[in-house]
Task: structure prediction
Amino acid sequence: MTERPVARGVTAELLARHDRPGPRYTSYPTAVEFHEGVTADDYLARLGEADGLGDAPLSVYVHLPFCDERCLFCGCHVIISPDHAAAAPYLELLKREAELVADRLPHRRRFAQLHLGGGTPTYYSPEQLTGFLRHFLRLFRPLPGAELAVEVDPRVTTAAHIDALADLGFNRVSLGVQDFTPAVQQAVNRIQSLEQTAALVRRARERGFHGINVDLIYGLPLQTPETFERTVESVVDLGVDRAAVYSFAFVPWVRGNQKRIEEEALPSPETKLTLFALARERFLGAGYEPIGMDHFARPDDELARAKREGRLRRNFQGYAVIPGDDVIGLGISAIGDVRGAYFQNEKKLSTYREAVGAGRLPVARGVLRSADDEVRRAVIHELMCNFRVDTAAIGRRYGLDFERYFADDLALLRAEEAQGLARILPGRIEATPTGELFVRNLAMCFDRYMREKHAGEARPVFSRTV
Ligand SMILES: C[S@@+](CC[C@H](N)C(=O)[O-])C[C@H]1O[C@@H](n2cnc3c(N)ncnc32)[C@H](O)[C@@H]1O
Ligand code: SF4
Result:
């Protein structure tokens, strides 16, 4: 046991009341509301509308799902294939899908943001990635100052990968770390040395990458405040520009690989919150600024500047700086956000292959957002990015009386206010410093689906908020 206190202002009772299943709000409505009534025809119609916007910048997300081996904690949509030859045809399908989308956007091919996520994009060789990206970059072109980002696993990423990506114009990189403690690494089947991580950070910096990010996870088996503090200190010593400190989303009923994690080895909710509070203290002490609910950035980093200037945005990758006006998703399970609707691709490789092979856009489900979805999305977005909502501005923007429209939601928020987590003021609402630790719970007050559909569900669809 540790003598360290749980985060400031957090009593055991407060924690018990708030540690419950809830979304991370990378979208609203969240992905569990996506349904099969939304089809490729809807996507075609919205792409047609999007093309009419001419020069408006796009964001593009490309999902590269393959990994050599499964980390036991992993909640991402991955395909484990030690046989690399089996993964090669996927790149051809991606090229074809990019062509199908590009055909529908003859006037709108310029992007402000390209993100390669996974899985592990650098599972592919530098030559394979270059082959796919050259093709993609002939179809879609970066705008001046565009952000080209890639997620890498330092265990499989070489200097040649970094060089190839830099040569193609990539300027942002995010490295998966999670925890440097050997016992924790063993418990999650992910052995990764500090040295290999440091070498990659150095190489990325030499090749002009900025906004270099490291991902950590708190709440993993065997983590203690002492071990996690050492991990955070190592990350600070690496001198990265940004760090994401994610709450471990433990959803074994959705991700079978997590069943192999020993539940008794997981830290308690109190310890979990202490781990985050400690990481926060260490990053702030080292001069980083807090960004949204789980990121930290150096004051001169783009993310910190965007936060100060009110330009921070939330998207499926977390927090973003220069999002396009529409998001194109390519690859299995990828989610697009085009002209007021979310579209998610087929999650299974076989169905994805079938659709793309037949020249069809591989949309499997989605949501066409209603006017009510849009205004709630704006409120939740403000809360998640800035911990406050300018309710007067929302009222003006959407032509409604905030107090009246959100009467039920504000009643829920008042209960949070009574517990010291929020303040409801004339013209604005805000999270208190303690409330910032529970911002997902505050956002849930404005989530209509949560209370009308998911309240009291026996089998939760979301991870716990702490
Ligand atoms: C696609 S992975 C990153 C790239 C690469 N595959 C790697 O692991 O280094 C994206 C990030 O998601 C986070 N992540 C994965 N599973 C998670 C979970 N169950 N809970 C919280 N974060 C998770 C990890 O921090 C991971 O670095
Ligand atoms: S955490 Fe990264 S490397 Fe590990 S299984 Fe998930 S996507 Fe693959």
Q: What stands out?
A: Residues 88-104 form the longest helix (17 residues).
